[in-house]
Amino acid sequence: MAKLPTWADLVLVPLISLLLAAVISALVILAIGGDPVEAVTVMVDGALGSPYGWGYTLYYTTSFIFTGLAVTVAYHAGQFNIGGEGQAQLGGLGVALVCLALPWPHWSIALLAASVGAALFGAAWAAIPAWLQAKRGSHIVITTIMFNYIGAALIVYMLVEVLRPIGQMDPASARFPVGAKLPNFGEIPGLSLIFSNKVPANVSFFVAIAACFAVWALLWRTRLGYEIRAFGKSESAAVYAGISPTKVIMLSMLISGGLAGLMAINNVMGESERLVQNASEGAGFIGIAVALMGRNHPFGVFLAALLFGFLYQGGAEMGLWTTIPIELRLLVQGLVILFTGALDTMVRMMLTPFFRTARGAA
Amino acid sequence: MTLGKDTGRQATAAPSNMQAGVPAIELRGISKAFGPVQANKDISIRVMPGTIHGIIGENGAGKSTLMSILYGFYRADAGEIFINGRPTTITDSQAAIRAGIGMVFQHFKLVQNFTVLENVILGAEEGALLRPSLAKARKTLAHLAEEYELEVDPEAVIEALSVGHQQRVEILKALYRQADILILDEPTGVLTPDEADHLFRILRGLKAQGKTIILITHKLREIMEITDRVSVMRRGEMVATVTTSETSPEALAELMVGRKVLLHVPKATAQPGATVLDVENLRVTDGAGVARLKGVSLKIRAGEILGIAGVAGNGQSELLEVLGGFAPGKIEGRVSLSGQDLVLSGPGATGETRRAAGIAHVPEDRHHLGLILDFAAWENIAFGYHGAPDYQANALFMDNDAIIRDTEGKMARFDVRPPNPQLPAKSFSGGNQQKIVLAREIERNPVLLLVGQPTRGVDIGAIEFIHRRIVELRDAGAAILLVSVELEEILSLSDRIAVMFDGQIMGERLPDQTNERELGLLMAGVATEAGAA
């Protein structure tokens, strides 16, 4: 297949994919008797039209950045980590254990400790599939997806049997101490002029942005990143160059799991302030779409996470304020994933003739 | 002989001056540009039916583009195609097949886990049920096998076949689709000398049956051996079309490169020093329990090139792998480098520890081992040496700028074209890719250089350059282990020649006291009297 110019590949293809997803979503909304224009208005207005909407959109964005980066790091090592969901849930357990351990004097210290806890637990949950892949050749796609279920079951056990305060009915941990409460956008000087303190977006958004830079530097500026990318491109060549497959698979998956686990500082520590069942709400899976759409580059991941944050929040608003059922949010997300992730080759093929004639005429 | 730039065009202007009848293929004024690169410039060529026509040129001369236009992969910007005298528009490969053109690609397009028969009918099935198609194909195949020496077991699964047999399947595919014109792109690149000979017998048989064959190659010997006429391409232009019997390899080489080329690099007599590499009774048993090396012993001294001749698959690859730090299986024996024993298996045997010991390795397969094709040239220059102190900015980060600067220098010294460190390795020609690998491995002044198939898929101008660099490294005092399936290369570069067959060294010879015939016998496992080692 002929190559498209870089700008078309990076900008035009995703835009057209999105447009196609939007058109089909509109057709479905029309078919069930809704008004697509109203749907778009409500979505845009609800997600981006007010500081309140932005507060939610950026909250979701934060989670998706972490899980998207997790998929990205593993992808560059040639590993398809679809266990982000389980790793994020385990990250939540790490956060809960850290936050409940001490009456934290200040949120910043708590954040640091909780980040370490989240990353360690997430990494540990990725470590077993990684080891099985490196040493036993067990396919990482299979093992990571199975670990999602084991992780969910483990969390339920921990909530019911260990973390649930005596006398409490619902399977959740105790509320975290006040010292572990992360400032949300309404409580951060400067941002508080725009946001109310009701929004869930919190300081972990900035941790997510820092993680984007860190992942970029790791992959393209460090020796380990070089080894990860080399191994991901060609395993045999990597061995020739003296790169240890075991080391790359283990480290890349530990970092990937750690990033997925880090998501918990946003949803568990920043928002719910206690550990509940299924806290990650599928963000681990959304991370796959985010990484695909973001072309496995941290900047792309950031933009894609923003888009999915918008879809998440906008979709919720649509379900709330229109007669269109909230389930349609899933349809729109599904279509976006389908077009940007799975069908972008099709879009590229559609575009190729235009560029070919353009070049021929030149 | 005629060497005029316009020979091709003259032929067009004066038809039937050579053979009676209409050309099987005639291209008139074909041009094709990719962006600013003019891959084909006003190319005209006529190929008479029942002849073997060679197209020769360096990598990047535009041979493959021209054939891709003929096979419908690209559309020409300008020009016309005539098949058997009729103007023909070839929009895709289906149209090419309908026009009677069959193509055998350098990299085979076979389904690895299908049988020969299934591959042959793939895309040419007649109807929804496979059984009648298979039965018909089986009959046709038996007939073709008999007629053209194209024997292949129709029920064999492709992955179980040797490369030579896989190629026969490709030819059978084309013939099954009733191709009258067969295009072969670098067909011998992957074949042993024996298999290549067999291929040439097949091609002569096809020619005798009136098929027209276009042979794309950069190997002068093949052109001289089998073609009737040969067209030379250089930088997108057809510089000459000549009758093979009226030209010489030297003249063709000069036409290809545009300057005089030395087919043999002159070198002084070796001044060997102390023993650098000492291999004793090396045995390798692969994962399937097959013995790949059965007790190999050899020594290489400083300032000496030991050439290993042999048909591919007789243990040369495993020898290079063990020395280069791979573990191709269970390894026994002793290997020492300048008196220090090398760790042969386990965590101490990696490419990293080998490089630290002063062993550089130009691997046989540069696409799968030596380079990361998607990586930029500068990233490939660091490949394997990415931990080198001069490539680190500090404890945390690599110094990409330093690597890029180093790459610029290496590209200039090794004449890598284009000298752009940011270009991915895959966009360089084979010769330039190999120069990138060589620059990386040679410039660290290794004690021992392992070099496998240094000029495989490399154009003729670059071969001379690569050979010179290897000899220079020898003269600087390095020990060099050269593995090549090209006997000519072994004979012209080596100071001593060891022949491998079935995992063993059959014997050692001095290049000036042996010849291709004797080496060929040793390569086939026939010990000659002098070789009773």
From TrEMBL, chain A:
Cellular localisation: Cell membrane
GO molecular function terms noted in the UniProt entry: transmembrane transporter activity
Keyword Chloroplast in record: no
One annotated Gene Ontology cellular component of this protein: plasma membrane
Keywords linked to the UniProt accession: Cell membrane, Membrane, Transmembrane, Transmembrane helix
InterPro entries to which the protein is assigned, alphabetical: ABC_transp_permease
Transmembrane parts of this sequence: 12-33, 53-75, 87-104, 110-128, 140-160, 199-219, 248-269, 301-324, 330-351
Primary localization: membrane
Membrane topology: Multi-pass membrane protein
Source organism superkingdom: Bacteria
Name of the molecule in the record: Nucleoside ABC transporter membrane protein
Species: Rhodobacter maris
Lineage: Bacteria, Pseudomonadati, Pseudomonadota, Alphaproteobacteria, Rhodobacterales
UniProtKB/TrEMBL annotation, chain B:
The keyword Membrane is annotated on this UniProt entry: yes
Cited CDD domains: ABC_Carb_Monos_I, ABC_Carb_Monos_II
Keywords: ATP-binding, Cell membrane, Membrane, Nucleotide-binding, Repeat, Sugar transport, Translocase, Transport
InterPro entries for the chain: AAA+_ATPase, ABC_carbohydrate_import_ATPase, ABC_transporter-like_ATP-bd, ABC_transporter-like_CS, P-loop_NTPase
UniProt domain ABC transporter: residue ranges: 25-260, 277-527
Chief location category: membrane
SMART domains noted in UniProt: AAA
An example Gene Ontology CC term for this record: plasma membrane
Compartments in which it is found: Cell membrane
PROSITE patterns membership: ABC_TRANSPORTER_1 (PS00211), ABC_TRANSPORTER_2 (PS50893)
Record membrane topology: Peripheral membrane protein
GO molecular function: ATP binding; ATP hydrolysis activity
Record family assignment: Belongs to the ABC transporter superfamily.
Full protein name: Nucleoside ABC transporter ATP-binding protein
Species the sequence originates in: Rhodobacter maris
Taxonomic path: Bacteria, Pseudomonadati, Pseudomonadota, Alphaproteobacteria, Rhodobacterales
